[in-house]
Amino acid sequence: MQGYYIAEIVSLVFMAAALGMDAFSVCLGIGMQQLRLKRIALIGLTIGIMHVVMPFLGILLGTFLSAQIGQLTTLAGGLLLFGIGAQMVFSAFSEGPSSPMQPVGVGLLLLAFSVSIDSFSVGLSLGLSGVKIMLALMLFGAISMMLAWSGMLLGRKVQGLLGIYSEILGGSILCGFGLHVLFG
């Protein structure tokens, strides 16, 4: 019986890591914007919370939603990531003072939503599988938060090495991930 619980925890950890990898990828690009550590902490915390909220909503609303609505939310998330990345690339080429989009306010919530949208569909299946829901939600939130922090801190280090090109690289990463969400 104890082996069953260990196997369940291990599988939930791997599932949480897989769900958090998109947050890592996106945060790698965001970390190149010379963010303060306080902002990095807030972004990671917001992404972690959204990785708890989205599967919870998926569990609650799973029986009422159709597969078509799930496809529309994936499309919206991919377009949002691509748009944010394109804005970063274009602002790198603009003349005058650069003002890269900062993940604050509604922009932060949209970012967190876009990287956690896939956990919504996982929540749909979690409600039917009989796993320990609270354990799964806490693992999803904690691991995605740590991966987001890791991505931003790594991006921050890479930004120092790349200088002005880091904004182009960061925007390209976001665009690429948006395209992956849309077509992958």
Automatic annotation (TrEMBL):
<feature type="transmembrane region" description="Helical">
    <location>
        <begin position="40"/>
        <end position="66"/>
    </location>
</feature>
<dbReference type="InterPro" id="IPR003810">
    <property type="entry name" value="Mntp/YtaF"/>
</dbReference>
<keyword id="KW-1133">Transmembrane helix</keyword>
<feature type="transmembrane region" description="Helical">
    <location>
        <begin position="161"/>
        <end position="183"/>
    </location>
</feature>
<comment type="similarity">
    <text>Belongs to the MntP (TC 9.B.29) family.</text>
</comment>
<dbReference type="InterPro" id="IPR022929">
    <property type="entry name" value="Put_MntP"/>
</dbReference>
<feature type="transmembrane region" description="Helical">
    <location>
        <begin position="105"/>
        <end position="127"/>
    </location>
</feature>
<keyword id="KW-0464">Manganese</keyword>
<protein>
    <recommendedName>
        <fullName>Putative manganese efflux pump MntP</fullName>
    </recommendedName>
</protein>
<keyword id="KW-0812">Transmembrane</keyword>
<comment type="function">
    <text>Probably functions as a manganese efflux pump.</text>
</comment>
<feature type="transmembrane region" description="Helical">
    <location>
        <begin position="6"/>
        <end position="28"/>
    </location>
</feature>
<keyword id="KW-1003">Cell membrane</keyword>
<feature type="transmembrane region" description="Helical">
    <location>
        <begin position="72"/>
        <end position="93"/>
    </location>
</feature>
<keyword id="KW-0406">Ion transport</keyword>
<keyword id="KW-0472">Membrane</keyword>
<feature type="transmembrane region" description="Helical">
    <location>
        <begin position="133"/>
        <end position="154"/>
    </location>
</feature>
<keyword id="KW-0813">Transport</keyword>
<dbReference type="Pfam" id="PF02659">
    <property type="entry name" value="Mntp"/>
</dbReference>
